[in-house]
Amino acid sequence: RAKAAGGNRYEVADPDSDARAITRHGLTNRLPTALERGEFFIEYQPLIRLADGSVQGAEALVRWCHPLHGVLGPDQFIPLAESTGQIVPLGRWVLQESARQAREWQRRSADGLPVRVNVNLSPCQLYHPGLVDEVAAVLEETGLDPTALCLEVTESALIGADEDALKPLRRLVDLGVDIALDDFGTGYSNLSSLRWLPISNLKLDRAFTRGIRQHPADPVDLKIVEGIVSLAHTLGLTVTVEGVETRTQAEHLGLLGCDTAQGWYYARPGPPDHLHTLTLADAMSA
Ligand code: C2E
Ligand code: MG
Ligand code: MG
Ligand code: MG
């Protein structure tokens, strides 16, 4: 195929791309059966309320334990799953498993209150006709409170979306599910779209918080984040910051009024029990 031949030309100059080509080939063959073989698993990364440091919930991040290549991150196989359509069954599984897990956290929590779980939706899932019914079925089967589920969609998935295309999202909101706009600021951020998109949470991409990792923080970056937070709050949206890696960042972002934060400073993505431990520690220190 032309594409493969094009790839071969670069292999000579770049051994890395050779490795990637082989890997990609191996992945393409394996992907369709990986789900039934039980090769996917989910790691959860806590979302922290900046006001009091408590755990609000966690984002579900899928991984593939490949028999030859070891644990692969989503960036290594989600694009492939999207181009083959495998993302629809895979995404359905992530949703089911995350909802079941969130319900389990709730069962084991001291106060019995719902624990929130964030699940990423790819554009293919968003525009798949069965989405709303699937989400409704998962909520029904697991008994998860709809307000404990937040679906993350990227800005780029919504580019050019008209009223018709937004219908599934509006129906999800009607179910009580929250929608977050993920990786905000990395695409063509259309600020006026924040007015009419059916979202309740803005996730600021870590590109924004890079400049405030160390003292002294970049004053322009601080101003930009401050401006976005103020705009979001005016529009009734909460703001989550991604990729918080240092105490400096956490302090600045709290002062700038961000609502929740996620990042290595608090916790890396990890197994489900990890969150339970954090929540317990949280409850004990409260
Ligand atoms: P995302 O939704 O923006 O998720 C955040 C990514 O940032 C995760 O990468 C997470 O591990 C990473 N991260 C978190 N804290 C830090 C930090 O402090 N520093 C740095 N440098 N990185 C941090 P991950 O797990 O590799 O996921 C990458 C992307 O893959 C996600 O970006 C999301 O768009 C996509 N993805 C993950 N799981 C799923 C899924 O189940 N379905 C779909 N459609 N996409 C998924
Ligand atoms: Mg996300
Ligand atoms: Mg994100
Ligand atoms: Mg991101």
From TrEMBL:
Signal peptide: none annotated. It comes from the Bacteria. Residues 24-283 form the EAL domain. This is Bifunctional diguanylate cyclase/phosphodiesterase. It comes from Streptomyces fildesensis. The lineage of its organism: Bacteria, Bacillati, Actinomycetota, Actinomycetes, Kitasatosporales. The chain holds residues 424 to 709 of 709 of the full protein.
